[in-house]
Amino acid sequence: MSKIVLGDKEFFKGIDQIKYEGPESDNPMAYRWYDENKVVAGKTLKEHLRFAVAYWHSFTGNGTDPFGEPTHQFAWDEKKDPVERAKDKMDAAFEFITKMNLPYYCFHDVDVVDYGNDIRENERRLQIMVEYAKQKQAESGVKLLWGTANLFSHRRYMNGAATNPDFHVLTHGAAQVKIALDATIALNGENYVFWGGREGYMSLLNTNMKREQEHFARFLHTARDYARGQGFKGTFFIEPKPAEPTKHQYDYDAATVIGFLRQYDLMDDFKLNIEVNHATLAGHTFQHELQVAADAGAMGSIDANRGDYQNGWDTDQFPNNINEITEAMLVFLEAGGLKGGGVNFDAKIRRNSTDPKDLFYAHIGGADIFARALITADKIIQDSEYRKVRQERYASFDSGKGKAFEEGKLSLQDLMDFAIQNGEPATISGRQEYLENLINRYI
């Protein structure tokens, strides 16, 4: 249990630390499934999931949408001086994280403290906040899961950062990354994320795609070399995203990113940070993207959220689909868990959720859905014939000619001869409905 850390004032008054009360509890301010000490598949839920609160959505997002002004009025946003305002925001953040009793947080640089156009001033502001965060981390025991730089919001990045056709813009992106890496290292951050946001193009008519991707790879190599030179031992993550805001993004999905990392010799240092909403926007399922990453040994971290089935953009809602997350946790467990990362709530409360308690309800529900899904997935693996059904489906490759094919011992003529000798194959059911029912039964 972490220690509640308050600043000069309490921002979430009347809310005590959130505790586990079990599935029978009717208390909306309690965990029903997330018992951090419960052991599942050899680890506690806390060790498996490594939950992190996202600094940007939870403490910077203000409910604005393309059609309306902010609806979330935060008490930590009242001071005019950017550094003093940032300290209030950090006080609120650590109060919230420790009241939620979650182990990690993560941030974009510009969300910790407001940035202007002066690089040295931005660096000065962030360094002040790093020293402030060190105190908060020491007092609370909360750790930094990862840091990153926002290379998409400022107008200079309208055509990308690392892939921008203007070298001058690329250097500003590099400056931000250096400062953000320095902050991450100083705070003992366990990972660092590159989320391009606008690393792509709007029209091929004015784009040299090959050159832009080469610049992106060179940028990543340069940043990695700097961080390693500063003693950073953690993992670097790339977060796939198909479109929105850029029409064609170079980090479209997990398979695209893995191909990019392999082509440019980055696989040894980089893993993937898979987001639920990005997966569905790419036309995939969350579990598909996790499986692609896991099969490549690159399943690094998770952005936990969901999209709206009626909206074709990144709505970043808190996760609540137990079937979706249970199937994802089957992949998670069979892959041996994440490679360095955790489960980060890259999600925001809705525009009309204006009560401070709403932020708690959202995170409690998100933590519970992942905990319940992980517990359920483990029971499915341990107690059902889930694995057996899949194993039997591929049994023809476990011996005889099938095994010889997998070992590369058969020619194309050998395959044809087998087909002729054995006639038309039997029709074998994939048992999809049975397996879907099995998932529901264990839930």
Q: Biggest sheet, in brief?
A: 8 strands, parallel, barrel
Low-confidence stretches: none
Strand content: 5-15%
Shape: globular
Radius of gyration: 24 Å
Q: What is the spatial order of strands in the main beta sheet? A: 5-6-7-8-10-12-13-14
Q: How helix-rich are the residues, as a percent range?
A: 40-55%
Distance between the termini: 28 Å
Mean pLDDT: 96
Question: Could you spell the SSE succession in H and E letters?
Answer: EEEEHEHHEHHEHEEHEEHEHHEHEHHHHH
Helix count, per DSSP?
16
Describe this structure in words.
The protein contains 16 helices and 14 strands. The protein has 443 residues and is an alpha/beta fold. It has an eight-stranded parallel β-barrel, surrounded by four helices. α5 packs parallel to α6 (167-186) and α10 (286-295) runs parallel beside α11 (322-334). The longest helix has 28 residues, at 356-383. It is globular.
TL;DR of this structure?
The chain is α/β, with parallel strands linked by helices.
Task: Map the helices and strands.
Elements (H helix, E strand, L loop, with lengths): L18 E2 L9 E2 L7 E2 L2 E2 H5 L1 E4 H5 L22 H19 L3 E5 H4 L6 H22 L2 E6 L18 H20 L4 E4 L5 E2 L7 H21 L5 E4 L9 E2 L4 H10 L6 E6 H6 L4 H10 L3 E5 L18 H13 L8 E3 L10 H28 L2 H8 L6 H7 L5 H11 L9 H11 L1
Parallel strand pairs: 1-2, 5-6, 5-14, 6-7, 7-8, 8-10, 10-12, 12-13, 13-14
Antiparallel strand pairs: 3-4, 9-11
Helix pairs in contact: 3-5, 5-6, 6-7, 10-11, 11-12
